[in-house]
Structures are given as C-alpha cells and as structure tokens.
Amino acid sequence: MLTSLQIENYAIIRSLKIPFQEGLTAITGETGAGKSILMGALSLILGNRADTDVLFDKSRKCIVEAAFDIRGLNLQPWFNHFDLDYQEETLIRREINEHGKSRAFINDTPVNLATMKTIASLLVDIHSQHQTLMLQSASFRLQLIDQFAQNQQLVSDYKQALQQWRTKKNDLDTLKQKCEQAALKYDYNTFTIGELEKAAIQPDEQSLIEQRIKELSHAESIKSHLYNAVMLLSEQEGDNILYMLKSVQNDCHALENLGDEYDSFRQRVDNLLAETQDLSYEISRKNDNIEINPEMLEQLNNRLDLLFSLQNKYHARNNEELLALLETLRNEVDAYSDDRGQLSEMEQETVLLEKKVWELAKNVTASRKKAIPALVNAMEERLRKLGMSESKFRVDLQETDELRETGSDLVTFLFSANAGIAPADMSKIASGGEMSRIMLCLKSIITDSMYLPTIIFDEIDTGISGETASKVGQMMQQLSQKHQVIAITHLPQIAARGRQHYLVYKQVLDNQTYTNIKTLNMQEREQMLATMMSGENRTETAVATARELLKSSQKQ
C-alpha cells in the first residue's frame, strides 16, 4: 500500500508530505484547489513525461517520492529481475532539475523510466475520467477482459510470437526485394562475367604488351643499332673498343710494380675491361633475341585493342579495375544464389511463425470467451447494487482474419439501462453517469481478480448523485476491504465513507498562491460534508444531515 507521498516544488505545491492509511481515503476540495495537481505529481512516479513547466521554483529541482509497504506482495522476483535492492518499505523517487532533465530512483538506486513504470504499475492503478472515456477504445475493452480472465501470460506469449512473425515477415519482404533487384541484374552480371573471364585478363599484362609492341614495331632499327654496337665492342683486331682496352691493360700491367698509383691504374682497367666484355655479351644476346615478326605484332595490337575496349565499356581505368569488377560481379551472383536459397527457407519459417501466432490468438480468444459469462454476471450484479436493477450488460466478441497487438478479436460492450430495451453499443447510448458506474463496476471486478495494493479513483463520480452516489461510495468502501482505495471526489456520500478525509485547499502567502492539504477531524468532516451538500451557506439541517451521513457511513 501507499504509506506516504512527498512532493517538493511541483506546480503550485511548495512542499507537502501526505501520510496514507489502509482502507478508503477521501480527498476533497474546491474546483481548482489542486486535487488534479496531486494526481499529476503521483503520475510522475508512474513514469509519465515531465518537463520544466512542473517546477514551482525554476531555480530548484522538483522531487516526488512515494513510500510503499510491499510486504506480502511477492515482488522479490521483480526486484531481482531489475537488480534492485528489495526492501519491505520501498521508496520510489522522481527528480526533475531546472533544465527539465529527469532522474528516477527505486530505493536510492538509479533506474530508467521503463523500470520505474513497471514496478509502480504493480503497486498503483489510477482510474480517472480519462479511463472512462477509454471504454470507447476496443483495445482497452479487450485489455479489461484479459485482466479479468488473467490472460497476462497468454497475451504476452501471443505478443512475443506476433513480434517475431512481423520481424521475420519484414526480413522476408526485404530479402524478396533484394532478390528481385538482383534478378534484374543477373543476366547482365553473368554476361559480363563471361566476357571478362573469356578475356583471361592478367593484372600487369597491359604494360608488358605495350613494351613488346614497341620492340616489334622498331625491330629492324633495334637490330641495326645493336649490331653496330657489337661490332665496335668486338675483340678482333682493328678499331674496336675491346681490342684497344686490352692494349691499355697490357701497358698498365707492365707498370703495376712501380708503385701504388700504377697498380691502381691496372685495377681500374681490369674492371673496365670486364664490364665492357659483359656489356658486349649482353648486347649480342639481345641482338640475337630481337625478331622481326609482323604476325606477333598484329596479335599483340589486337590484344591491346581488346583490353582498351573492355576498359572503355566498363568504365575501368586499367586491368586491375576490370579484375575488381569481375570479383564484385561474381560475389553478387553468388549472393543472389545464396539469397534465393535463404528466401525459400525464410518463406517456410514465416509460414510456420504465422501459424503459431494464429494458434496463440485462438488460445487468447478461447480464454476470453470462457471468461465473458462470468464477467457479464458479475457486472450485472454490481450494476444492480448501484441502483440499475433493470440494466443489462453484454459483451460482443467477434473474431476477425486480422492479427493485431490485442489478438484477432474485436469487442463491443453492449448496455441497456431499462427493461424492454435491447442492449446496444454502450459508447453510443450510455450517459456520463452510467459510464462512470459501469467503469467503477469493471474496475472493482478486475481488481478482485488481481492483487493490486492501491487503487486511486480520480473524480469518476461525474453525472451521479443522491442514492446512486451513496451506492457508489458503498462499493468503494467494500473494495477498500481488499485494497487501499484513494478517492478524489465531489460527492459527500463518497467522502463520508473514507477512513480518513483530506481537504485540498489554496492559500496565499506573501502574494504567492500555494496548494496545501490537511487531515480533517470528525467535526471538520461534518462541516465539510455539510458544505458539499448545501454550499458555503450551510445550515444546521445540512450539518445534522452530514453528521448522520458520516455516522452511518463509518458504521458500515
């Protein structure tokens, strides 16, 4: 149960700490006094969005802290799941700094808002007029049925399978699109691969071919010059270099013993002669290898033309880029082949997942159908207790061929307040007061099937008064025997049944308006109930009536 709520620097609240008891707590106050502000502060604990607009003093942070007694709620596994310290007196705190940045804590351990929201949802449920309006939502109506039927695990399994199927289906659609695009390029890719493979391109062949073409194109001139060079280097007698170098060598050898300098001349001539002989051999060998071959020249020119043609065709600057293109296209063709194989497997997996989702959806539907008669009986019983003895409540559950987040069902709540009138769509025929009573009945039934410690009713008494209001108060009081109930109300019939009664009011200090709250004693409660009945000009009759109402309500 909620044991206390502390609010600092929120909206027009400077500082409040509100203790709560078991049973039913009534909170009243004039319109605009700040009752909704209390709920806004508490909603921060439930993970709602916040910004700097909530700061009373823009220079200080806002703090909202709720203390809960969680003994006997079996929440230890949840705390273990989120790696939190389990404490029987658990504190949930939310802070918003002057820049609008929010921080959340559970037992002083920082947590994200999703964790806070999960833990808080196990402790508190706020029911407001907004939730009554949500009865017009089919998904909300299904959620109510699932809570009554305790379908949490069934729905969780269904949603998990639905998400897996949708993910797999999206992956399948992506792969199909990829394969379709690859199929359009497949013929082009395979033709290009064939053409490039047929060309048998080598990385460095272009430069070798170009060099070979130069030699073949100038073969006669090259051989002529090489021949002349060989003749000049010949070792035969005459005017040739080697013959003259040998003469020089003989002269230097004759002087080598006359000193180091002469010996140096001899060594240098020996080296020069050896190098020249080697050069003569290389030039001669090259001359022998040079051939005049017009047929080979034509072949090489044709090969070079082919390479240039492929480079131009495929926008490549050289053979290396052609080979890189070939590798890329081979990879694309291989990937297309792999993707087609994977596509078949993924189609089968998607079909199986969809079948599984439908099976789980059918399980959810069956559980809902099984629970509906008991829900209808419980609703009509409670509606009779609220003075709607001739009312009829029905649930129209229709299966569809579409898988949604809530399953494959669509549900409509049908209602009739009077005998002889067939039930019709509740959202179209029920008045505001009837909707409030219907929602209260649903809430009381659902919370009976859940172990939710604290239920807060935020002004759901719209459109009801008199004896009906008294019966609504009685139902809340009965509900408070199993749960802590906090009711923000304008009705004295409900406020009188509270075990404790808080008054929310405004006060002005130093030209600044604040929201404050105080606990009313029995005498103050009599006066307040009388004011709620007859206005500020309360009479002795109103006070006496309030006293009697309070007395009879507290006995019950």
The major sheet is characterized as: 6 strands, antiparallel
Measured between the Cα atoms of the first and last residue, the distance is 22 Å
Helix content: 55-70%
| Unreliable residue stretches | none
So how many helices? 18
Strand content: 15-25%
Radius of gyration: 48 Å
Which class do the helix and strand fractions yield?
alpha/beta
Number of strands: 15
Q: Which word captures the global form?
A: elongated
Mean pLDDT across the residues is: 87
Strand order of the largest sheet: 2-1-4-5-6-7
Short description:
By secondary structure, the protein is an alpha/beta fold. The protein has helices at residues 35-45, 76-81, 113-121, 129-133, 138-149, 152-199, 205-217, 219-232, 241-255, 260-289, 294-313, 319-385, 426-429, 432-448, 466-479, 492-495, 522-534, 540-555; strands at 2-10, 13-19, 24-28, 62-69, 89-96, 102-106, 109-111, 124-128, 392-404, 407-416, 424-425, 454-458, 484-488, 500-509, 512-519.
